[in-house]
Input
Amino acid sequence: MRDNPFTKWKQVGGTVIGKALQKARTLREIRWQNPVKSVGMKLFLTFFLCIVAFVLIVGSLSYNTSKNIIKDKVAVSTEETIRQAGAKIDLLLGRYLDTSLQVMVDSDLIRDASELNRGGLTQYRQFELQQSTSRFLRNILITDSTLQSVFLFLDNGTIISTATGKTISEVPETESWYQEALERDGAVVWIPTQSSVMDAEVKTFGLVRRVKDTLAGRPVGVLMIEVKYDAIKDQLADILTAEGYYKFIADGSGTVVYAVDEELLGQPLGIALPERDTGR
Output
């Protein structure tokens, strides 16, 4: 019996369609399977997360290490800058100490001042001695542009100064720095920042010290040197100018004698300062 061709093709077609449907179901199952559940994907995610965590940890440690190194370098650099500024201020103050010593050891000046103190002079002789002493002080003022004025307060109440047009009317005996100069008997007493005794609108600092006639063994008077406040400002103008820095100088008692904010001048610093032997 001959096979029916149509039946044969039907069987072949059914077989092909069945296999196609079976493959489609298999592909559908594979397509919709969650890839995270596969072992390969889990291993990949594990390694990826470990690498990310490692990078974050190493990056954080590197950042903190670099930040600390930079902070340390900035601190060292700032400290060195402060030391250099301190050395400049020491040199500046040392110059004024040398100037005061120049007055104290000048025999002609001491002789003339001692004669003025003794009194009993003719009017001409008194004028002559005052002019000679004043000229000596003016020469000191001329040679240093940072000086505001120089005074020699004699024990008899005579005031000799570098002023040509005006002077103060009386010896500032009530000032604490004047009394301290008398007590310290030749040692330097620094005057904190204040208005000049000659001009209230000019800020100055300075020094005073007792002047003595060492040959006769008796005191002569008190020397006062006023220094322009700008002398310190100019020394510190170009250092630590970045935002966040505060520049100030305090004396041994903790009183502010220099600050960018001049409202702080004469105010207590409020910080305990370490003791330092400057030798001055």
The chain has a mean pLDDT of 79. The chain has six helices and seven strands. The beta strands are 147-154, 159-161, 189-195, 203-213, 218-228, 248-250, 256-259. Residues 13 and 133 are 136 Å apart (CA to CA).
